[in-house]
Inverse folding.
């Protein structure tokens, strides 16, 4: 029996894809959903310990949340949820 996914830790607001993410999705070269799910569940990816701690603190203090994920050697993406939780942006690290 499958377990339901854990709940989101915070509101995501409007989901906004950068031009580079949008292009890779349209070309079928990237599905950012798994990275987005990790972000919303508090797995901040490939960030420093300090950023990891800052994100965990931001869950309580309503500050900006920033995650980085290495997809492969030449592709990393950043996911940022605004402090007011009005929007979450997904962008290529090179666009950030």
């Amino acid at each position: 029996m499958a377990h339901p996914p854990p709940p989101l830790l915070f509101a995501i607001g409007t989901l906004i894809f950068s031009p580079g993410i949008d292009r890779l999705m349209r070309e079928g070269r990237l599905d950012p959903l798994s990275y987005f799910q990790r972000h919303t569940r508090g797995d901040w990816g490939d960030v420093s310990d300090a950023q990891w701690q800052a994100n965990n603190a931001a869950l309580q203090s309503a500050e900006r949340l920033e995650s980085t994920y290495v997809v492969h050697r030449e592709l990393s993406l950043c996911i940022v949820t605004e402090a007011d939780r009005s929007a979450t942006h997904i962008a290529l690290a090179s666009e950030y």
Remarks:
- The first helix runs from residue 19 to 26.
- The chain has a mean pLDDT of 93.
- The two ends are 40 Å apart (CA to CA).
